[in-house]
Structure formats: structure tokens, C-alpha cells
Amino acid sequence: MWDAIKSMKKEGLLSLATFASVFSSYVTADRVQEAIMTFEVMGQYGCARDTVALNSLMSAICLDGKTVKAKEFLYVVRDMIRPDADTYAILLEGWEGEGDVISSRQTFTQMVGDIGWDTKNVPAYDSFLTTLLKAPNGMLEVLRFLDAMREMGCYPGLKFFKAALEECVRTADGRSVRLLWEAMMRIDGLRPDTQMYNSVIALHSYLNESDVAKGLMDDMVFNGVFPDSQTYNVLLKFFIKRKKYREASPVFTEMVKNEFVPDHANCSSAVKMYLDHGDTYMAIKVWKCMIESHESDLDETGNLLVLGLRDVNRLPEAVKYAEDMIDRGIKLNSSTLSKLKQSLAKVGKNYIYDELLRKWKTR
Which tens digits make up the pLDDT trace of 248-261? Predict the structure, then answer.
């Protein structure tokens, strides 16, 4: 390798990229000291030992999980080569990767004391706050630092907010998620994506805060973000679970209108919910969507629909959907047929049952 470097020097082909490759090769081979020695002799090969070169070396060391050695070397050279915002960002990313909360605090304090607050240093703030999330009571500390940063006009980016919101969802921390969301929405040019909306909507649904969850979905479009299948399914599942059939109906209608498909479990649960509340119109509407979108595991819900229609004296429709299910190869239970037979006999229409039975037997 060094023979190649010497040849490249003669041809005037050496650059910082060459030495960045050497740094990475040594560090990957667990020979950090030789990577450092390479940095020290760069000047002899016509490459400056400046802050950019230092950051290249620091990055190679930290990316390999050896951030302690990078920090130790920085202490040695900092009086000769002044670190910049990128230097500290690299260190903080290293501590983040290693989950070292204590070292991250120390580096952050040193960074602020050395170069001050820099509104452009978003990667450093991202890594520092994300690392703090791993500490005991980390969210409380994160919120305090977030306030301090805001006072200095400095903010983290989406990387941190995504990690923080995921932590709130994991711990069902409704208070913190509201504070984080409000802080994020106040930052110019920073807007949550669909995945972040989905996580927060799911949390508010879990906490039985349906108005907040629905309000978030309504806000998405105003922020240039659009609901996806998961958004609708999360909200629909919540309304079904809480038996809020009136609230579920517009969500289902909007979902289908926007060409998203309710998942199988939501369809099945929705049919049952609407039948339980006597809303056969919506039960049939969901069933039609279900058979168009899902090809298997339709038997249980289909039988439920037929019996539900029969029980509310919608016998002609019960027969209609029973025939359709047989034609589609959906298994109609013998008990369902037996109950249809009883109802048809009462109105003197045994011949309809006989035809239904004939079709059933030939399938």
C-alpha cells in the first residue's frame, strides 16, 4: 500500500481521499495507532494536516466503534488543529452508535464551550438528543435540553424527532409526545412524514384520545403529507375496538374513496360491529369491500353477515348474499342454512331453500 502511495506522490495523484482510504483500512484492521501515524505523516506527502483531514480520521475511527480512541486523539491534537462543528458531530454520532450517554454529555458540553451554539450543527444535536433517550429518565433530560437549544435558536432534525416519537409510542408517553410534536411543528422547514404521523396517531388511539388522533389525520394534508393505508387502518381499528361505529363510517368511506384497502381483521371486525348496532347498510358495504380485496378466510364473516341479515328480518338480502357466497366458493355452514330454512318456511318459500341447498351441495 505504501509503495502505491509513494508512486502516486511522484505522479501528483495523492489527495485527502487517498488518505481517507488508508485511515479506514487501518481502523478496520484494528490498527488505529497506525491510522493516527498516517495522519501525522500526511504533510510529507503533500497533503495538509488540517481540520478536514482530522475529521476524516475521526470519522473512520468512530464508524468502527472506537470512539474512545478518537476522543483521546482529539485531546492530543486540538491545540494544533482546531476542531470544528463537524468534529464534534462525528464524536457525538460515535457515542450515539455505542449508546454511551455519559461520554455524549461530556462531548456536548465541551462542544458548546469550544465552538458555541451553531444553528447549522443539526447532526450534532440529533445525535446528542437521540443518545440521551437511552438514559434512565432520558425523555425528561431530552425535553430540558430541547428547551435550552430553542432558547439559543438551535434545533435538532427529523432524525431525532423520529427516534423520540418512537420512544414515546413504546412507553405510551402521551404527555411527552404532545410536547415533542408541538416543538417540531414550530421549527421552520421541518415537517413530519407519514410514518411519524402514523406512530403518533396510533399512540393517541391507544390512549383513547380519538379527537386528537382524528385531528392529526385531518392535519396531514395541510402539511403536505398524505395518509396511507396504515393511517386509515390504525384509526379504523381503534374506532372498531371502542365500538365507535359512527366515527368509523366516515373513516372507512374516505379510505375506500382514496383507494386504500382495510386489512382483513378490520373488515371482519367492522362487519360484526355494524351488525351488532343494526347498521346493515354499512355491514354490507364493508363485506363488499372485503370480498373484492381479500381472497381467503372469508367464511366466518360471510356466515355472520347472512345470519345478521336474517336476524333483522332482511331475509331476501340474506338469501341473496348466501347465494353469492356459494357461487364464490365461500363455505356456508350447515347451521346457517338450517336457520335460513326455518325463516323461509315461515313465509312459505321452501322452494328458495331447496334451490339454495342444491347449489350448496354441488359446490
Answer: 999 999 999 999 99
Question: Tens digit of pLDDT for each residue in 51-98?
Answer: 999 999 999 999 999 999 999 999 999 989 999 999 999 999 999 999
d(CA 331, CA 314): 21
The answer to whether position 20 is within a domain reads yes
Which cell is 89 given?
458531530
The answer to whether residue 8 is domain-embedded is yes
pTM: 0.83
Q: Three-state SS for 363?
A: coil
List CB contacts of 85: < 8 A, sequence separation 6 or more.
111, 115, 118, 120, 121, 124
In a domain, 140, yes or no: no
Q: How many domains in the chain?
A: 1
Distance separating alpha carbons of residues 136 and 10, to the nearest angstrom: 56
Rounded distance between C-alpha atoms, residue 37 and residue 344, angstroms? 93
Q: What are phi and psi of 203, to 5 degrees?
A: -65, -50
C-alpha distances in angstroms, 64 versus 50, 73, 98, 126?
Answer: 22, 15, 10, 20
Q: Which has the closest alpha carbon to 201: 165, 248, 167, 240?
A: 165
Residue 63 belongs to a domain = yes
